[in-house]
Amino acid sequence: MYCAAISFFSPYAAAVSLILWLYCRTGQPTAGCAIPSLMVSYLYLIYAFARKNPATAWFELSLLAALNGFALRTRLSCDALAGALALRNATLEKLAAIDELTALYCRRQIFDLGHREFSRCSRGGEPLCVLLLDVDRFKDINDRLGHAGGDRTLQNLGEILRDSLRTQDLVGRYGADVFLALLPDTGLAGAELTADRLRRAINSRPIIHDSRKITLTVSMGIAVLDSQIEDFQGLVHRADVALYEAKRRGGDQFRSWFSLDDHRSARDRRLGNLRASSELP
């Protein structure tokens, strides 16, 4: 419509404006569109004064300038709208990825990141550890402090996890009071050091709510990526088994899948020796 209106005055100006419109449609900055727009006006001014009555040329030039101004204002409005939509979308993506209470990754996001890290480390043969952390006797905390105190406990725990883990580590809320940490480029020894550091940091920062103080303890399970694990869910399952072993032993500690596996192997060897000795004449 813009080019058709200009073509009423001059096919030459319409052709140049069509080029300008196509240039703007390619996503060029608004400032880059303003310069060709001014060039259209000046070129038409030269053309009009050379071929037509000056009074008529001024009238047509004014209309051309008004049309160019309208096109640029429309482009500015579109740029502003696109910027607002991009900001809104970025905000929505962040809200969808972050747990509102703890300000850590939500379950879906930490699992998406976990699948990505699992694929990357499996292809490259790089170490990867998963750490599951569960608050000991969290129901008792809710009973003593109320749900507001329980929420404050989880918020404090989120702060400790952010402060204690490395920048490359990824941590999210796995369940109600269970957290999942991804430790890339970390072997079993490094993961156990991390777990011990977390345990000490959590013990040293008690929860204070309504003048009541509770020392927080946690149980943790560790699993290390190896060639026998087929997917990320299998790695999390191993960490979950180790976590429940830590809770079974009384909490306030961490256990690793490898230590459980070694324990089972030793137990099986002892049972095998007992069976062999019982079968001797």
Please state the oligomeric state of the protein chains shown: single chain
Q: What about the largest sheet?
A: 5 strands, mixed
Q: How many DSSP-defined strands?
A: 7
Radius of gyration: 34 Å
| CATH architecture annotation name of the largest domain | 2-Layer Sandwich
Strand order of the largest sheet: 2-3-1-6-7
Morphology: elongated
Describe the structure.
- The chain is an alpha+beta fold.
- The protein has 2 domains: 2-96, no CATH class; 107-242, 2-Layer Sandwich (Alpha-Beta Plaits).
- The chain has 9 helices and 7 strands.
- It has helices spanning 2-7, 11-25, 30-51, 54-97, 107-124, 138-164, 188-203, 232-248, 257-278, and strands spanning 128-135, 170-173, 178-184, 207-209, 212-214, 218-224, 253-256.
- The strands form 2 sheets. The protein has a 5-stranded mixed β-sheet with strand order 2-3-1-6-7, with helices on both faces. It has a two-stranded antiparallel sheet with strand order 4-5.
- α2 (11-25) packs antiparallel against α3 (30-51).
- The longest helix has 44 residues, at 54-97.
- The protein is elongated.
- It starts with a helix and ends with a helix.
- The model is unreliable at 265-281 (pLDDT under 50).
